[in-house]
Amino acid sequence: MWNYSEKVKDHFFNPRNARVVAEANAIGDVGSISCGDALRLMLRVDPQSETILEAGFQTFGCGSAIASSSALTELIIGRTLKEAEQVTNQQIADYLDGLPPQKMHCSVMGQEALRAAIANYRGETLDDDHDEGKLICKCFGVDEGQIRRAVLTNGLTTLEEVINYTKAGGGCTACHESIELALADILAEQQAAPAVAVDGTKDPHWQEVIDAITELRPHIQADGGDMSLINVANHKVTVSLSGSCSGCMMTDMTLAWLQQKLMERTGCFMEVVAA
């Protein structure tokens, strides 16, 4: 029997925003009823400021799924889409004073639904359509992209952790070998990609830049990209973007986010450019 926090129980028995948003202009659907968990997240976003004015959800699943969906809406109402993009599944779990390890996949489902809703608002197509060869767990419809994001965002290192966070492999176990192979590849890539490519010259703001990039990297890696620091000199930060970030239409937004964070940390303007 799992131990649930009082906050999880409260959001299960008294879910916030468990309703249809009539004028929703952003909708994210994840999971499926046949797999045991499904979530539809609906947002009403102000077109001018891109602030989330309303959020509602419909969930088919366990108490943790309902509580996680409820917590997610509480976390994102009043935030801009750019701010909401930074919400992680761990923040959802923390908002609920924790979830049992076996139920962490419910918080991941919430994060995936938010990601899908924001993409829907922007008219983007996500790369999670289970293309041939990418679907790893047929029982729960989990593909390699979902596993990658969960691993990189939460620092997963074992098969058991991947099962807890994604449900992949929690059914017939036939995909366990595929999960372990994918996990090994992801961890190998992560170890091979250094966060900093030092050029030897240390600017006074060097450490603050490193800290800001370290904060940003998990979000970039979750979408298959990465960022490394090349140089900091004369209030100019040069970074290298790799993976899915190369040629991505969202590159300017990523650089702008880092630039804003550096202004907050250093109190001065620092130009951020990609090498």
TrEMBL record:
InterPro entries: BFD-like_2Fe2S-bd_dom, BFD-like_2Fe2S-bd_dom_sf, FSCA_dom_sf, N_fixation_NifU, NIF_FeS_clus_asmbl_NifU, NIF_FeS_clus_asmbl_NifU_C, NIF_FeS_clus_asmbl_NifU_N. One of its GO terms (molecular function) is 2 iron, 2 sulfur cluster binding. Binds 1 [2Fe-2S] cluster per subunit. CDD domains: IscU_like (cd06664), NifU_Fer2_BFD-like (cd19947). It comes from the Bacteria. SUPFAM superfamilies: Fe-S cluster assembly (FSCA) domain-like, SufE/NifU. Keywords: 2Fe-2S, Iron, Iron-sulfur, Metal-binding, Nitrogen fixation. [2Fe-2S] cluster binds at C137, C139, C172, C175. Its cofactor is [2Fe-2S] cluster; Fe cation. Residues 211-272 form the NIF system FeS cluster assembly NifU C-terminal domain. Gene3D superfamilies: 3.90.1010.10, BFD-like [2Fe-2S]-binding domain (1.10.10.1100), Fe-S cluster assembly (FSCA) (3.30.300.130). Fe cation binds at C35, C62, C106. GO terms for biological process: iron-sulfur cluster assembly. Pfam families: Fer2_BFD, NifU, NifU_N. Residues 135-182 form the BFD-like [2Fe-2S]-binding domain. Residues 4-125 form the NIF system FeS cluster assembly NifU N-terminal domain. May be involved in the formation or repair of [Fe-S] clusters present in iron-sulfur proteins. Belongs to the NifU family. This is Nitrogen fixation protein NifU.
